Amino acid sequence: MARILVVDDEEDLRAFCEAALAGAGHDVATAADGVEALDALARRRFDLVLTDLRMPRLDGEALLRQVRATYPDVAVIVLTAHGSVAKAVEAMRLGVSDFLEKPVESPGALRSAVTRALGRDPLADGGGATETRLTWGAAAMAPVETALRRVAPTDATVLLQGESGVGKEVAARAIHRWSRRSAGPFAAINCASLSETLLESELFGHERGAFTGAVTQRVGHIEAASGGTFFLDEVGELAPSLQAKLLRVLQEREYTRVGGTRTLIANVRWVAATNRELVAAVSAGQFRADLYHRLSVFPVMIPPLRERREDIAPLAEAIVARLRMRLGRPGLRLSPATLATLTAMPFPGNVRDLSNTLERAAILSDGDALQLDAPLPDARAMPMDSPRNSAPTLEEAELTAIRQALQRHDGNRKRAAEHLGMGLRTLYEKLKRYRLG
């Protein structure tokens, strides 16, 4: 049971949230605006605050700043009306655990979000705004965990290396959780997911009028993570100009917003991750040697899943526990035979590949026991009595090309998109279409 404070100026929504959460065994209090919420927080301890953004007297963003400053251990979920998603995402940079769009679709969706925010999802403590608990048990992971626990209490910069999907962000969040900065925010950014211009603004923030479309001042990830940990995923994909700017921040611990002149202090602990061989990239002139040395103060290599098969069973059990909640199938389970099959599989995409395999099996299995050999329906399949041309269709050829590009570039989607001559967003759309995860 958790103590939850629901803050919203809509009485009906407060009543809905109170009923849904109290029905799950939580101790729920309500407030009509930020002022009432701060009064309630001063009187008693809460584990989680569920708040709207737009409210009279003191709005949700101001409330969030006060909660983060005074009650850093309290989790926060933001409620946002349709059309205010950008505002909610901005709030997440200030340490929000999650956000829900109004109207909330069901009591179950609300309870699931609360469970994730409180860190009680079997895989939560992790993807996105939550953290993923370490389920490492393999002998190959013992030195990794030892290294992470050794370096966590320091402020040393850590470089996490390993194939795509091995759990580098899990490791980064573990470092944050075990560090002296654990009460502060954990901010993460994928350096391969944004254009150079957007990534610079996301990192450093920008001033109003800095470029076309910059209608307001924006706080960057570094500023939002002040006092906490900043995780740079796929750091090997940084453009040369951003490599130089990041190097200055690491050296001087200061930076300016895009279009600004005021010097800001970077009070963050740096953790970076890459699936590239950065030493080879330095030799090829694709990555700055001085930046590499700044990032690799404490390098940690995370082995692929095929080298730590003892981890497959506990990871699979944790993933299935999450699927039970997400799919609304409480009886979903893994049979001993299925676990044995999973343990023998290669999983070239590592933990992400395992997760996709189990989700696909859960969707296709008729009963509660997951069947890995359930056939995948093919809407393009031709009738049995129809002759089929031996030449591949355009879609089949495209699917093959995408798989080959991803394999060639070790799962790096940005480089695969460049190899295929398409935009990154187009590749993501095609991955979703072909159910490639």
Explain this structure to me?
With 437 residues, the chain is of the alpha/beta class. It folds into 4 domains: 3-117, Response regulator (Rossmann fold, 3-Layer(aba) Sandwich); 139-303, P-loop containing nucleotide triphosphate hydrolases (Rossmann fold, 3-Layer(aba) Sandwich); 306-364, Helicase, Ruva Protein, domain 3 (Orthogonal Bundle), CATH 1.10.8; 394-433, Arc Repressor Mutant, subunit A (Orthogonal Bundle). The protein contains 18 helices and 14 strands. The strands form 4 sheets. The protein has a 5-stranded parallel sheet with strand order 2-1-3-4-5, sandwiched between helices. Helix 1 (11-22) crosses helix 5 (107-117), helix 2 (34-43) runs parallel beside helix 3 (60-70) and helix 16 crosses helix 17 (413-420). The longest helix has 16 residues, at 312-327.
